[in-house]
Design a protein that fits this description.
Layout: H1 2-9, H2 13-23, H3 32-39, H4 52-55, H5 58-63, H6 67-78, H7 85-102, H8 107-118, H9 126-129, H10 143-151, H11 156-165, H12 170-185, H13 189-196, H14 201-217
Helix pairs in contact: 1-2, 1-14, 6-7, 7-8, 7-12, 10-11, 10-12, 11-12
Length: about 220
Amino acid sequence: MAVADALIRGTDPQVTLIEWCKRYAENGGWRKRFAEWFTDDTPKPYSSWGNGAAMRIAPVGLLASNEDEVIGWSDTVTSITHNHPDAMHTAQAVALAIHWARRKVAAAEIGRRLTERFGYPLHLTPNDIRPTYKRTEKAIDSVPQAISCALHSNSFEDAIRSAVSLGGDSDTIAAIAGGISEALHGIPNDIAVQAWTYLPKDMQSVMNAFYQEANANT
């Protein structure tokens, strides 16, 4: 939500992310280093190799108008916290996948491009991954798996179910797979309507403005 808000208003992503985190601080569930970051008086990147940056990157892929913009915006909103190369590259990969999917690039071609660019084993299906998958928050060991769940899906719901079925850091993997599969398949109306009811008014306002701009740029 903070990334979308920063992009549409042209605000500093670090300032905007911290504002949103503090507004909803009572939600809890923050990773220790991230919580220390957004409550610090002088927050600095902390070289995280985690998958949190890829989890929040979807708005970049939906809004950017070209590949250079995807990479530039991705690096800008990622490096404020996750400035480790693995986190930076996996966030780029997710944003590019969404950007290409919005422009009707086929899932197989997206996988080929990402494998060529980043070396991820995206030929693996969820059925290939599931038997030996272990919980991890390392970006390099969880984001490619999330991407695979989207690229080998036949619907938005199928991607989400595959992501959850892997086990482990399911909310993050499903968030990443969901962002890509939305761009590939769209979100069914019944799911979108139900999810909308979970959002408070300030988030609904951001989403309305964001999708209006994103749809105008497609």
